[in-house]
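2.7 Reproducibility. Because tokenized structures are sensitive to small changes in the input, we list the exact sequence used for Condensin complex subunit 1 C-terminal domain-containing protein, including any N-terminal residues retained from the expression construct. No trimming or masking was applied before prediction.
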Amino acid sequence: MSTKDAEEILDILSEFGINTLSEDVFHAMKRGDLIEFTQFISELPKITKNNVSRIKQLTKILRNWSGKQNQSDLWASLREIDVRPDWIELISFYLLQSGEDFLADGVQMYMILLSMEPALSIWNPILFRPFLGILAQASQIIEEGGALTSEIEKKLQLTIQVFPMVLQCFSASFVNMIGDDVYMALSEATIKLASGYRPEYEKFNSQLQNTAFNLLGLMLETKTDVILQYIVPWSLLQFATSSSTTTARLERLHDRIIQLLIKSFKKDDPYYILFIKHLILRVPDRANLKVRATMLVFELIKNSDCAKELIDFVMKVAQSNKVSSRVFSSQLLAMCVVQLTQLFPDSDLRGNVLEEMLNILKKHVIDRAPSVRATALSGLSTIISNLKDHEDKGLILENIDTNKFMIKILKARSVDEKLVVRRASLETIREIIYSRDTAPDDSLIDLIDERVRDWSVSIRVSAVKTLGDLLDSFPNIERLHRLWLDAILPLIEDPEQSVQKEAIDAIRNHLIKPVCAGSPELFTKIMHKQDYEFLGRVFLYMRLHSIDLSPLCKALTKFVVNREYDTNRPYWRMLESLTLIVKSSFNKDFFKNLWYRRDTLPPEYYGTLAHLEISSDEIHTDLITIINQLVEEGGRYLLSHEVLKLFKAQGAGDDTELMNFISICMNKINGVAEDEHGDFTNIKAFSQTVYIVGELISCLNDPKRTNDIDFTGLQLLMSEKLPNGNPIPTLIRTITVTALGKLCLARKDISNAFASAFVHQIMTDTASEVKANCLIVLCDMCVAYSAIVEPHVQSVTNAISDRSPAVRKQALNVLTRLIVEDFLKMSPLLFFRFLYSITDDNQDVAHFARICLFHVIVPKFPNLLKQYFIDTLMYFTDCEIASLIENPEIKKRFRFRGDERRLKVYKLLVTPMNEVVLFELVKDIFGRVIDRFIKCEFNLKEHSLLLSDSFNALLLMEDKLHSSTKTEANTDEGSDMEKVIEGAKNAINLMHNTMISTTMQSLKKIHQLVRENNSPLQKIVKKFYRVLCDNDKELLQDLERSEPILAAEIREEMRIEESEKVEDEEDIEKKEPEKLSLFNSPLLKKIHNTPISLLCSPAKSSTEALLVTPRKQRLVREFSTPQHGDDDFSD
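Resulting structure tokens (single pass, no recycling of outputs):
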């Protein structure tokens, strides 16, 4: 058989005249002299479509023998008839030079030859380049995409035909034979084909990827060092950096890469450890790719025998200056902790490593970079969520929660200025709660509750969902239900529609639906009056948004009749709110017919009738009797209010009956107040009488009719004592203020005098309840009669410093309402009072003040913080502000003692500012403060605190601007978010450089000024210089020319800090990997830029040819390596 095939091969070669060529032709081919080679073969018969079939027959014969164990028989038969392998090599060369029509035949024949015994003797890099060109062409097609035209389909089909042939050739001897340049080119082309994918080329994708993966497996088992530079970025998915999200296809591809690497690398391979370290140092910055890189590195570490060495290396990288490296190390260490037993079966070794890894994570939680803090928190969250079945659960908890670390850090991180950190802290709190078998700690629930009022919309929405999930998981915790009501119901007034919608969904799912279904629930047992007020707004929202309330109306109507008084009271309260919103959903006759049962029904029944506008002579007559009874005996507050509401709804135009009741009440009050022996034997009944007076006055159609009534007793009850010296109970005084307030709102003629009386109460050291009600009354009076209350606004504002936290909160509440409703102008002094409150010693008051200022007032006046920032610096450093008039004694009450509260105010003001405002504010500080020191308008000794605070504020602003340029997009953000963030960073950097250049002269002058005066302020000025130089290294070079001494000091400080920050820093490679171009290997770049049909053409034939033909030199070494067994083919 071999003899017959050998003779057939000889016949084919003879037909094309190969056996007639001289040795010079073969020498020219070997050394790559294409010009001479072309001249030699020009006389050979041309290859055409008619005679190429004979060459195809030659290829078929070679393919049949390729891979057979007895193929040496064929070559022995060829030697017997004097046919050398290089004759077949030459016919391959001839095919490749004969045009594109014969390219596939030439490549296939040559690749088959390379898979056979004489491969070493016929190796020629020029002949191999068309094969590489086909691979490069295919990878470019897939990378660029486009419609599947007939031409592209032909090229991809050709690749599928020839690509698998290299698998037959591949071996250790093949790798040594082709050399590093060709091997690098083959590696890069293969990697690109392994990662390429286009939906439009679906029928080609899998075939090319399968072949590429098979070849890469062989490559990793042979010459790892050469392919490493391409395998590292490929394994890290850097070819997918244009994508912001990780698709399912990309995840499957990466899983396949992981399996390939694990299968191909040997655990004891020295390149394995090196490869993993390369991966760790070159992790991409993109968040979604970083996650996949974490999975990759962990799987490789788990598969290695050097886990301890690699973990130590990761912990060293965790101390790097590079933010991205610290983020990655946090992710990886968290994953290692979760699956620690797989890495370290030895429990003793595990304990030591575990403590070190957790310490790194705890350190990263307080890192300067927000992304590091967030990632560390997410890592701890992951660890906690996987603790249930962890062998080292006790040890992990002991290390994580040392000295209550988690609670302390979560309190700080949950109010972090960065959204990504607060989001991570919220998720961590959630995982801690669910990891425990017991009910959640109150402190953790409180942290979630606080996030419902977060700056960020997404955090508020997430907190609402988390509270809802907790309700489902812990349905019997009353305090959790109370917090839920306090947090969720007020969100109906949130300015963001998405938050409103989330709150409505939560209310419907956890409150309304259980009520409609009659399911057991705690809410109706613990709801307060304010809860029902918010619920009324919820019902209004639902009606305006066409949400069906009829099921709730029907359920409540059923419950209020069929349940006992104590049980149905909450449903009556809901019903009263609903009847005000959706009257048409209720049957008026049904409720009217309940009148005969009114004594057994709660007060809300009367309010319900009033809202439904139900009236009749019978009801009117009965109401007179009820009111008379309330006046005579002193009724309950709510019952009095509801009865009088229904009485007013009856539409009686004559106030005679009400005036009679007022007279009766006032006679009682005056009798007690003016009696020499008057006292309060029944405080509750008397206070109810006072309350009824206010309610009766508010129901009058003509308040002027009260001119004939003596209200002296009511006025006396606001004092601390009666004229006879007996003390007046606080309850009575408090209700009296409310009653007098209603009288003032009804009669403007007496309001001026009473306004002064209310202000006097606020300024005295009286009961906080009285002061709080006085503030409310003054607020209502300001709305009704602005001119009357305006002279007293300063006194109301001073209540912000009252000794009672309740009074301070009430003052903030009423002032905020008046400001946002435009009844009170926000003046600089009023602004300073709010700043005093946001750092109040009482955390509850401070928190409320921040909500009022930053969440209510600032959204209405967006420029407020910038407008008054310079004045704030001057006011709190006791500098004179020309336009500000203030009583010196009052100012002392609002002075900060010590630096801490002042600096805290500046930080709170800077935090919500955007970058544009910060840039403008920096210029303002230099123009309105620092330049005035330079011009000697301010004195360094007298105004040193102002200059110090100005630089402290500048440091805060610079820190905020610097962190803005370090923002990283998250995997849950939109696909275009990273481009937006990158553009924003560039814009911020440009604006920042412009700002520095405009202020640098002033900065140099102020530095000279403090240095010449030997001022202690040199330290703060140098600190600002230092921060600028940290963020902009070019600035330090400029400073070395103008201020060499200062520059030397800063450089030395930076050097010391750098050396202390990371030990053994030299072991950690900092160099960023170069971005991959289309092709990186030198040979593949040349091949890519040369048409495949010209890869084997001489330079003279085309200016696009790959090779420049060298001059003919007989001593030039041939391309092929020395032949083995050359004697077998000699004559």
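The radius of gyration is 43 Å.
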